[in-house]
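Database export, one record per block. Field names are fixed; values are copied verbatim from the stored entry.
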Amino acid sequence: MDTELLKSFLSLVKLKSFTLAAKELQLTQPALSKRIKRLETIIGSNLFDRVGNHLSLTQAGELLAQKAPQLLNSIDSSIQEIRDLTGKIGGQVTVATSHYIGLHYLPNYLEEFISQYPQVDLQIDFIDSGLAYSQVISGDIELALVTFPHQQDPRLIHSQIWQERMQIACHQEHPLTEETQSLKTLKNYDIILPPAHTFPRELFEHNLQELGVEHGRVKTANYLEVVAKLVACKMGWTILPETLIEPPLIALTRENKSFRQMGIIHRNNKSLSNAAKAFINLLQSKR
């Protein structure tokens, strides 16, 4: 089967519009309609019910929507494995990365990797660490650069590349700086943390427990850089990697053993492409 038919089908499932799907695929609407009709002929069943401009999946369409991503992934993996038999490093590799790692760490490696392996089509996908983690588990993504959760999934190999010491921080003019036992009174002031049910929030809560600190009311912000900016506006205190604590922020803690680990993850039962192995080797060689 032509994989472009499945990709066109999945685009239409996602966007629910021939106009939008055709634009995403850089096709005309008649060309997209022709692809879908051809796929329906191969399947032997209608995939969509069309009522005016509204599209809904038939039972056959729903089943194909579940199976198509796995089929495409299997085909791509098989082709890459065959290419890798030559020992050459090429093809496409997709690396998911959290915003923080992608901004602060990944650029140090990209230029060298691209220069060493010009035949590799490197795709970078910026997504939340938790989502990247689940997509590596499901096999949708080969590699991901993430902050490691406190409880690591045994289905994944975790290769630590970076480690950051975590410190409690506030504005240098925050009332906490006047407290003689500031760590014991933190719960009396607002704290700014990543949103609930995310990897960073889980880890920050764990870091605070390690330091024996309780907190009170929570305000949230998605990115650590935003958390730091809000703290710099005297909106509360937080816990941050040392690298983000710059004036007017100050650390209320000193040397401690509260860290967060970051690195690269991949499935432990899935063969990696030569390009993926080369990417991992580069990261590990510069630790």
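Remark 1: DSSP finds ten helices and eleven strands in the chain.
Remark 2: Residues 3-82 form a domain with the Arc Repressor Mutant, subunit A fold (CATH 1.10.10.10).
End of record.
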